[in-house]
Amino acid sequence: MSSANVFFAGWEAILHVIVVGIAMYASLVVFLRLSGSRTIASMNAFDFIVTVALGAVFGRALTANSVALAEALTAFALLIVLQYIAAWLQTRWPRFERALKNDPALLYFRGEFLRDAMGDQRVTESELRGAVRKENVGSMDEVEALVLEPDGKVSVITSVKDGSALGPVIPDEQPMQPPSEP
User: Fold this and answer.
1) pTM for the structure as a whole
2) Domain final residue pick, 45, 77, 99
3) Is 76 found in the same domain as 18?
4) Number of folded domains in the chain?
5) Distance, CA of 40 to CA of 35 (rounded, Å)
6) Which of 65, 99, 133 is the last residue of a domain?
7) What does the buried/exposed string (b/e) look like for 40-72 if buried means 16 or more CB atoms within 10 Å of the residue's CB?
8) Ordered mean pLDDT values, 10 residues apiece, the chain (182 residues)
């Protein structure tokens, strides 16, 4: 490759990027609309992998003259079909869902940071306090629980009545009790 090609390889290469870029972008929008909101919802690890793979296919098709548009569209379709199948299987078999998703993790409960769980999840106290602030909660005294959800977001629970939302993550040694009335 000559030094001139580093800066400008010709109008044909520019035209290739424009035509393939428009076609890939439009196709991705159509594929994602057909596959439903689940494909672009908050991501678990599997969703993240599919998203990165879609980006890689898009980038490769956009910049490599050796990749035909039909091949890239087939790769898009394959990834989205696999995502749809995985989502379908998750809704029918809890065991399959557990294989693809992390369980929610209780990181703070009734005034105590659960350090072991925080270490397991690689989450710091300052990150948890930041999540509380993002929810416009001014004091940790107002927080009953903090849960790291499978999509990586922290749920801030400010009141617990029957514990039903915390059921799967509450430690056995701390049974749910209704808060005392003032």
Assistant:
1) 0.58
2) 99
3) yes
4) 2
5) 9
6) 99
7) eeeebebbeebeebbeebbeebbeeeeeeeeeb
8) 67 84 82 62 68 86 82 87 83 80 87 93 93 92 90 86 70 48 42
